Amino acid sequence: MARYILKRLLLMIPVFIGISFLVFAMLELSPGDPAQIILGMKATPEALDNLRQQMGLNDPFWLRYIRYIGGVLHGSFGSSWRTSLPVLSEIAARIPVTLRVALGAMILTVLIGIPIGIISAVKQYSLTDNLTLCGALLFSSMPAFWFGTLLVLLFALRLSWLPATGSDSINSYILPWITLAASNAASLVRMTRSSMLEVIRADYIKMARAKGASERQVILRHALRNALLPIITIVGMNFAGLMGGTVVIEQVFTLTGLGTLAINSVRALDVPMVLGEVLFIAMLTSIINLFVDVLYVYIDPRLKSQYVKTKKAKVKE
Question: What's the CA gap between 2 and 7, in Å, rounded?
Answer without folding.
Answer: 9
